[in-house]
Amino acid sequence: MPKHAVKIIVAGAAGRMGRTILGLAHRDPEIQIAGAFERADHSAVGRDVGELIGIPQFGVPVHPDLRECIQLGGVVIDFTQPDAVGHNLEVVLKARRAIVIGTTGLTNTLLEKIRAASRKIPVVQAPNMSIGVNLLFRLAALVGGVLDDRYDVEIVEEHHRHKKDAPSGTALELARQIAKARKINFEPNIVYGRKAITGERKRGAIGIHSVRGGDVIGNHQASFMSEGERIDLIHKASSREAFASGALLAAKFVARKKSGFYNMQQVLGL
């Protein structure tokens, strides 16, 4: 292990994203898995992280609370649930560590707390940490800024049946990027699905639609449609490793910072 490897602590270690992050981190020579934790009643608590990712044990147990392992690492990676993020943020802030937050469905109140914490600690917070999706954000903003409201915008996102929040944070960020590029207010111009007799489509509206089913990792499409043509921007994730690799890049980035609020555009130099 390199002397200056970034020491990470993974939240929700036994979850789908937690295990994926740990698996990639174990193979990354610039990362050291220093700690991991799960909710106190989870069956993974007390087990070695190696067991979770299918490798020999290496002496890092799954703790029942971040407070038990916060001193072991420098960067906490959080892909959990919105109600857990607030507690984890408080622990990280008290210990003056860095945090990477990929959890979606965050309330405005919680986002404000995250920004406030970033005045004292370094934070990377993003609705999606995939390199491809963050390029999609840039492309959506570019197209949205060039094409005026004669082009109708519809966003469709698809995820597995277990996803709890809708629309996805990625779909919302796509809409925000397009609204910002068009210099329009976000919320008044968003249409979340349609039902019954809706009348003609409002000019300038941005539609967002959510599909849930099966084991879909995450598909997003932003469509710009006019009377004579259509442009589709599409990203399809076939593995959670796309998000996990971005989270590890964010951990390396934020480990070099003293404080500040950063997004994946800054991490990737976009």
Could you please describe the fold and organization of this structure?
- The structure is a single chain.
- This protein is of the alpha/beta class.
- The protein folds into 2 domains: 148 residues, 3-Layer(aba) Sandwich (Rossmann fold), CATH 3.40.50.720; 107 residues, 2-Layer Sandwich (Dihydrodipicolinate Reductase, domain 2), CATH 3.30.360.
- Helix content is 33%, strand content 24%.
- The strands form 2 sheets. Strands 3-2-1-4-5-6-12 form a 7-stranded parallel sheet, sandwiched between helices.
- Strand 5, helix 4 and strand 6 form a beta-alpha-beta unit.
- It is elongated and about 60 Å long.
- The chain starts with 5 loop residues before the first strand and ends with a helix.
- The model has no long low-confidence stretch (mean pLDDT 95).
Write the layout of secondary structure elements.
Elements: E1 6-11, H1 16-27, E2 31-37, H2 49-52, E3 62-63, E4 75-78, H3 82-95, E5 98-101, H4 108-117, E6 122-125, H5 131-146, E7 152-159, H6 169-182, E8 190-192, E9 206-212, E10 218-225, E11 230-237, H7 241-254, E12 260-262, H8 264-267
Parallel strand pairs: 1-2, 1-4, 2-3, 4-5, 5-6, 6-12, 7-9, 8-9
Antiparallel strand pairs: 7-10, 10-11
Helix pairs in contact: 1-7, 3-4, 5-6
